[in-house]
Write the structure tokens for this entry.
Amino acid sequence: MYAESCCVPGRHSSDTARTGSHRTGSHRSRKAAQWGAPVLVLSLMPKCPMCVAAYLAMAGVGVSAGAAAWLREGAIALCIMVLGVLVLRTLQRCQRSRAVAVSPAFR
């Protein structure tokens, strides 16, 4: 069994096929944006629907309090789903790399 980490850059077959041996800066920044965008939206999301309506009014879009509540809940649900998909992808990638490292066919 190999004692390699699944999260070390350059260890995945997709990394080496894409860039030779290391990930590029643009790939890292895209990964950071994938994780950062939903976290930023969740952290900046106001608690009350009236604040959402006020922010949208400042942007020139007028919505009712009920519509703002639906938009707020929808944005929160979307961010949680995106983060869930990113976590599942990361876990699958780690499991695949461990399976390849442990498999006797690849030794």
Q: What stands out?
A: The CA atoms of residues 49 and 72 lie 7 Å apart. The mean pLDDT is 80. Residues 65-102 form the longest helix (38 residues). The chain is about 70% helix and 0% strand.
